[in-house]
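Cross-posted from the bioinformatics board.
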Amino acid sequence: MAKTIPISLDAMGGDHGAEVVIPGAEIALVRHPDIRFQIFGNEKVVRPILDRYPRLKAASSLIHCDVAIAMDTKPSQALRQGRWRSSMWRSIEAVKTGEASVAVSAGNTGALMAMSKFCLRTMANIERPAIAAIWPTSRGESIVLDVGATIGADAQQLIDFAILGGAMARALFGIEKPTVGLLNIGVEEVKGLEEVRTAGRLLRETPLRSLSYSGFVEGDDLGKGTVDVVVTEGFAGNIALKTAEGTAKQIGGYLRSAMSRTLMSRIGYLFAKSAFDRLREKMDPRKVNGGVFLGLNGIVIKSHGGTDAEGFAAAIDLAYDMVRNELTHKIAQDLVHYHRGRYAAAAPVLEGDL
Amino acid sequence: MAKTIPISLDAMGGDHGAEVVIPGAEIALVRHPDIRFQIFGNEKVVRPILDRYPRLKAASSLIHCDVAIAMDTKPSQALRQGRWRSSMWRSIEAVKTGEASVAVSAGNTGALMAMSKFCLRTMANIERPAIAAIWPTSRGESIVLDVGATIGADAQQLIDFAILGGAMARALFGIEKPTVGLLNIGVEEVKGLEEVRTAGRLLRETPLRSLSYSGFVEGDDLGKGTVDVVVTEGFAGNIALKTAEGTAKQIGGYLRSAMSRTLMSRIGYLFAKSAFDRLREKMDPRKVNGGVFLGLNGIVIKSHGGTDAEGFAAAIDLAYDMVRNELTHKIAQDLVHYHRGRYAAAAPVLEGDL
């Protein structure tokens, strides 16, 4: 029998806490019977819900935690209140101790990132973690990072993000050498941020073994799926992500109101119902639920706070895939190769226009 | 009879040049018979096309220009080749001399902005021009700026953009005191760019007569239409704009493929055709064609380069509205009030935490 995959869950995170986390875990367990869960949360709240799912209960251990981090808690506050003892902290800590291979929480992003950084620390040679999102495209899916872990990134940090995202694309899409683009703006006059230009030059001059650098991409390339991995600093990345989500909702609203407007359109809707169902499934934000924290000594997955059990299960599926496909190992490998290559290339690069 | 509105056109700009510009002008003229056009371009190319539209011909003067700026010309190159004598330059110059009240070009953005800055110069007290886009929202339309004139903006420049965008909202939407939001990211830990935070504090502390400051907005507020004017620096603004355009195209593609997939869905499509037509019209990018260059001594409208006659006509409509509703006057007024207010408020502000 294959090795089991140990996953830790913060049962108290998200708008609905254990009411979503536990049923979500059940759904994921049916799809991946080799998961073993460590569930962190208030026993009084979680136990009665867990009792409803005997299969899940058999595959899980429930660890009681006194403290739950509220959705509006500020990161510094969360660290003060919740370090060592909150369900959020302990689910992350399980990754540090090796009891879990990945942690999943629907808790608030700022608190989760602050705790993850504090507990797991950034990897050697990585200055800043990033949040990677899976972006549905016309061609399939891409990875976009950073979508909001930090604001701003220098050229070296952008290259780090490229390596992290590249490893994730190898793990998630099974692509040997994923294509990577740097998000930029195309107005000739300005030619983009200095840091983006420098990162582009470095990636061109010193090609990486683990990825294929494709140059700059623009905002509309995100939906096209022009590259497997889009790299950006977190401010623009977060705005792009939320703008796309907002636009999708907006068009969904247009479509609904257009279809319900006349008798003819309502009849048309009935005929084309399967097509609309397909479209709805395609646009379902729950399907791509899960931001992956990369660059730390361990993987943490952030689920949307407002998602339902199906959405939370998708975040667990993502966590499962990341472990099964050895994301951490791939990242470590790629980083070693990159830094080895950097030392080898150091002399000619220093002679260049660095 | 009301005063005529003189509009200058760069007939050589865009992917299709005069073949789109001239029919576009005809469409706009039918809607606004009080426009008088000054058309700048190569006479040999433009004259035969103009001859096909007797009504337009009667309302226009054609001014021959030897030089046309190609779509891939770099800004510096465009200035070298095209200053004083290109159709792009001369259409802008007509605004400077007062022969036209506004210029419209589908030429390349970088070149058009470089020439506009060089020819018209920025307004007193305005350091940087901005490009304002009209953003279709679930509630109607908003104005978003800057969408790519320059990268980065300090707090004062963001406030300038707020004033420029506010004046445009008054001119375009007829709103007495438009609501203005600063585009930011919501991750608590980081709380957004320093400059955005400072601009927000200043707008809160010293309320402007011409606008109502609503605080920070996020990427998904763009499609919702949470505020009338969204202010951002040009890098994030350009990425947001192109991401939204890309997402709309992507979903349009999903919808088309879903509707054509089965016989039932094709029948459904026929029944609901009027609803789909409505949706298509709602999502038609030609309808909101036109980036408005703000902050210069004169207004220049940039049409999409790849648009058709209908789209170019929409850019002229926008130009017409901007003049009819006295955008330049409104901006000047708001700036005077702002700076007067600043002097008055200078003492207490200096005692504060500036």
